[in-house]
Amino acid sequence: MIFITGGAYQGKQRFVTDVLGIAPERALFNAHEYIAKALENGEDAEILIDGILSRGNIEAVTCNEIGMGIVPADSGERRRREVTGRIMCRFAERADMVYRLVCGIPVKIK
């Protein structure tokens, strides 16, 4: 699996499909949104993501980097950010390759 992170609108999806050549149905785009929805619905986001990845058909995962801004005052937003950060660490650990996109430019970090 290849994990791609970076700020919002930095070209992660284009990188996956156009540069890496991975079909959209073989990628999990915007994992941070799946995590947010799971938390809103009272689900365990880590179990949800593990379930998606365990299917074995996901070749790439994208997730916005959300931990570099101001710490949210809202406790729910802080929890979402913390859970997303932990899951991103797990993605990076499991991934064969990790990229961070900055202004559309991929930087390989693993």
Can you put this structure into words, describing what you see?
The protein is an alpha/beta fold and 110 residues long. It is 44% helix and 20% strand. It is built from 4 helices and 5 strands; from the N terminus they run βαβααβαββ. The chain has helices spanning 12-19, 31-40, 45-54, 75-94, and strands spanning 2-6, 27-28, 60-64, 97-102, 105-108. Strands 2-3-1-4-5 form a 5-stranded mixed beta sheet, with helices on both faces. α2 (31-40) crosses α3. The longest helix has 20 residues, at 75-94. The mean pLDDT is 92.
* Individual helix count: 4
- Cα separation of the termini: 12 Å
Which residue ranges are poorly predicted, with pLDDT under 50 across at least 5 consecutive positions? none
Structural class: alpha/beta
What is the N-to-C succession of helices and strands? EHEHHEHEE
As a percent range, the share of helical residues equals: 40-55%
- Mean pLDDT score: 92
Q: What spatial order of strands do you see in the largest sheet?
A: 2-3-1-4-5
The tally of strands reads 5
Which labels suit this protein?
110 residues, alpha/beta, five-stranded mixed beta sheet, 4 helices, 20% strand, globular
List the SSEs and their pairings:
Layout: E1 2-6, H1 12-19, E2 27-28, H2 31-40, H3 45-54, E3 60-64, H4 75-94, E4 97-102, E5 105-108
Describe what is shown at a glance.
By secondary structure, the protein is of the alpha/beta class. It contains 4 helices and 5 strands. Helices cover 44% and strands 20% of the residues.
